[in-house]
């Protein structure tokens, strides 16, 4: 395996790990804007590196084509290089990466409206909670006022009853004399 192939494999592996980490973060953080940017950045980096790999692969193929007219020994060696390049393009990992990228894109598309729905529901919840708290505050004020009025009414009734009681006692005392 050549150094370029090993570097490419390591790069793809580190990018897949980055995508997995950023994918996990976006699921656990309810799709924060920063997480979405991180995910998009990781995908952009991955795509750029894939394009770079494809570009380098094309450059190698062009050199092989240019050298085909040389010595037969070189022709055999170049044929081996071409076979290795063909193996790279048909590598099962490339198909798996393509499938996973499509799945990530699909999930991102599904997450966007869900995130918007969550934000809308959070706003509605906050508005309902504010309205509830306002009505509850109003209720507390009304109950407090009611208790004050009931207490005032009871105090007035007690005073009136005491006055009536004194009046009755005074009338009874006058009768006795």
TrEMBL record:
Regions crossing the membrane: none
Compositionally biased spans, kind Polar residues: 1-32
Region (Disordered): 1-43
UniProt xrefs under InterPro entries: GORAB
PANTHER family attached to this UniProt entry: RAB6-INTERACTING GOLGIN, RAB6-INTERACTING PROTEIN GORAB
Name the UniProt record assigns to this protein: RAB6-interacting golgin
Organism whose genome encodes this protein: Lithospermum erythrorhizon
Taxonomic placement: Eukaryota, Viridiplantae, Streptophyta, Embryophyta, Tracheophyta
């Amino acid at each position: 395996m050549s150094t370029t192939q090993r570097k490419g494999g390591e790069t793809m592996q580190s990018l897949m790990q980055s995508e997995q980490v950023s994918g996990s973060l976006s699921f656990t953080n309810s799709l924060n804007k920063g997480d979405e940017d991180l995910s998009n950045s990781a995908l952009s980096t991955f795509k750029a590196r894939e394009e770079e790999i494809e570009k380098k692969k094309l450059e190698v193929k062009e050199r092989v084509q240019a050298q085909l007219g040389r010595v037969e020994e070189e022709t055999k060696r170049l044929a081996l290089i071409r076979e290795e390049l063909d193996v790279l393009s048909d590598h099962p990992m490339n198909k798996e990466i393509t499938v996973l990228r499509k799945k990530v894109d699909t999930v991102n598309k599904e997450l966007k409206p869900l995130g918007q729905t969550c934000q809308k529901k959070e706003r509605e919840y906050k508005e309902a909670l504010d309205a509830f708290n306002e009505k509850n505050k109003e209720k507390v004020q009304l109950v407090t006022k009611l208790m004050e009025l009931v207490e005032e009414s009871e105090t007035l009734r007690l005073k009136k009853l005491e006055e009536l009681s004194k009046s009755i006692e005074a009338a009874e005392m006058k009768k006795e004399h």
